[in-house]
Amino acid sequence: MVVDEFADGELDRVFRALADPTRRDILARTLRSGESVSSLAGHYRMSFAAVQKHVAALERAGLVRKRRHGREQIVHGSPETLHRAATLLAQYERLWSDRATRIAGVLANEEGSTT
User: In a 3-state reduction of DSSP, which class is residue 9?
Assistant: First the structure.
């Protein structure tokens, strides 16, 4: 199962990072194209330091990576980590969908036996 592919605490960091709307927006922007932290800070009504903290939380979760380009650090989204999290959610969806199908089958059989 995909959960086993995440290291201890990694999955918690991924979903904790994705729980914040500013972090989701930063992730979306950096998945489209790399942006410096300074450039990212221009999109939000918060301090540069606050944006840096959001980027750091995303980086700890493995959702973004920073690469030095001259004097700037360019932030790039990491689709691999996002894909792993999406795969995990799809597995949970299949699990619950299969259970709902089996329950519907049991209920249909009970209805058939009582009529």
Answer: coil
